[in-house]
Amino acid sequence: MTSWLLLTDVERRRVSRVAVRLARANPLLVPAAIGVVVGVMWLAIKAGAGAAIMAVFLPSGLSAVLAIILMGGVLLGLGLAAAAPRFEGLDAQIRTVPIAPLQAYLGTTAIPLTVAWFIFAIPVFDFGTSLFRTIQVPAPDAWAGLLLLAQLIACVTGAAILEILRARPSRRALLAAIPLVLALGLPAVAASLTSAPTWSWLAAALPHGLGKSSQAAVAPIVVPSIATSLLGVLAIGALAAGAWSAAATLPGRAPAGSEHMRSRRIPRRLTLAMGTWLTLTAVRDGRVRVVLLLSLLSGAGMISATAVLAGRSAAALTPLAAILLLQFAAGAPLALSSDLAQGRWLWRSIPPTGREVGLSWWIVIGTITAAISLVVVAPVFAVMPLDAYPFVLGALVMAAPIPAAVGRLLPFRHDALARQLGVLALQLVFFLGALGIAELIAQRFLLEAGPVAVLVGMLALTAAICSTAPWREA
Amino acid sequence: MGAMPVEDGSREPEAAPLALRVDHLSFYYGTALAVDDLSLTVPAGTIAGLIGPNGSGKTTTLRLITGILEGKHGSVDIQGIPLRDAPVEAKRRFAFAPDAPSGFDHLTVQEYLDLYAALQSADPEYGARASNLLGVMDLQPHTNRVLGKLSHGTRRKVAIVAAIALVRPLLLLDEATSALDPESVIVLESLLRSAVRYGCAAVVATQDIYFAERTCDLIFMLAHGQLKAAGSPDELRRTFGAADLRGAFMKATGLTHVLEGIDDVLAPPD
């Protein structure tokens, strides 16, 4: 077996061992994982039809949907490449084996990343099929496949961007960036030459004819030749893949960060001591800072894109954007849960009981999540209709304790891609579950009291899980 | 009392009160037996050493004593307080430094000591004692360095300082001398002696037989999770007819037979 396949196999074994161990430690994760798969598939099919309706009724709506999918692909590539274990993450002895950098990158990053992308590909394909059937283009399945390919290219582009960003500034990095710039610039140049509207370059290769002007109602759907579109997508894909493989062997940055810090005072009370520790960690940990920065950037991008594309209709979409942002905002507190898991030896050997430690953890993480969420979703309030405020604020309060529960059930790991994806999926299940229950109760019982009851129930359940969830992380 | 090449390391009650009693303790990792019906006692004012090969159950034993792992079989009493029934009271009576302290990478040494004091509800003089110990262990220049940037050895010294400064009746050190420089090992020996003079007891798991021979009043030899022998270094030497503790250890663990054929291991095949 070649070296890179061996490294991939090592990753596969590691992931399967972790999955089995986690399933044994927290049986709740098994139905949660099944729920994620079924729920995401169902949502993808439903969202396809919903997006098609939005595309028909909103000016530039189809462009918006496609742009969001492709932008999502770029973000996914960025995130996956950042989370991939990488050769540097392996044991020091293994790192001394004679393997070419490209092979090491293929084995530890590129192949696991592509496999991870397939997890996202299934709902995207569902979504595309549903979308293209609804808008009645010829050969909808083929177009869905093309959308999938475009998303993979966006994902590779995102990974290449990250590799170039984290490489040491050099002539090689500059050269590696050339195909990437071409891949990004080609559709934009083509769009400007054909007088296409803003953002449409992202979706230029796909079948739509909407959005010629922001005032236009519904433009007729123009379906280009699928062969032409495929060739265009492949050309861009080749450039993106070239950039990615060229960037893979770039020398990385030296470990950054100062060794010396001004020591801060840690209070003596348990909750305050934990709060200070986690706040200092959030401020000082570069990876948590990156998560926060990505949250803010993607939030700002999502809101401005929605506003540019849909004008006043953006107001209707902002609660949805806010909820998605809350998911992003939870990334930092989730990342902090790994610090709790690493210090397990201390938490279990100190006099405060697991219940006391769990409760303090829950309070601290809830507060941190709420604070970050407020900052992240604050721009949403500017474009949101007043009657949506209670909904978003309610969602925010509800979202606050969830990372604590998820972090306790499945501690986040910076260096384990599968673990990160699992944590985020579990987070989504908790969050959507809470919203779903709230909606059900609100429909069937008292409109006002229902959400409150659910909120209290969620808090109680989360507290119970936090205080009794075993510290069984091996 | 002579050394006991036996399965029970409990000693008869003596004048000194017991700092630690472990009674018929067993623990499984899945189906693998890690600690097998282990019993031992450590009187107050004693430095006890747990020695044994890798995988002999030393770390697991310390984790069971500290409550990091919960054993279903057997019991652990700290100064007569049962860990299972009164964990908070029992945990107030010991301090522990692990083999590989992890977590808290973004705190400075000083912040970590503050956090540790808060979590342990340490007395008001803890800070002064910790500061003194930082000086003794040559850690003062590192006070404002973040833990994640320290070498493994320095990080271990910080964990040892944090634990010793608590001055609890029982001090538990896992792999006491691992990654420490020779100066720090010498200082640690003196610190353990000093702690004993203040009435503390210490249990140190170590791979360093010479350290154990020099420092420990009582040795527990473990292999395959079982107690193979117990006694003072002198008693063990006499019992096994060995010139030093190394010889006694080799006989107790069966290593002598392995060494007999060592020259053939790297020989080319016929």
Write a concise synopsis of the structure shown.
The complex is a heterodimer of chains A (474) and B (270). Chain A is an all-alpha fold and 474 residues long. In chain A, 74% of the residues lie in helices and 0% in strands.
Describe the structure.
The complex is a heterodimer of chains A (474) and B (270). Chain A contains 17 helices and no strands. Chain A has 474 residues and is mainly alpha-helical. Mean pLDDT of chain A is 71; it is low at 197-202, 204-219 and 469-474. Chain B is globular and about 65 Å long. Chain B folds into 2 domains: 17-93 and 170-232, Rossmann fold (3-Layer(aba) Sandwich); 105-167. Chain B is an alpha/beta fold. In chain B, helix 8 crosses helix 9. In chain B, 35% of the residues lie in helices and 23% in strands. Chains A and B meet through helix 8, helix 11 and helix 12 of A and helix 2 and helix 3 of B.
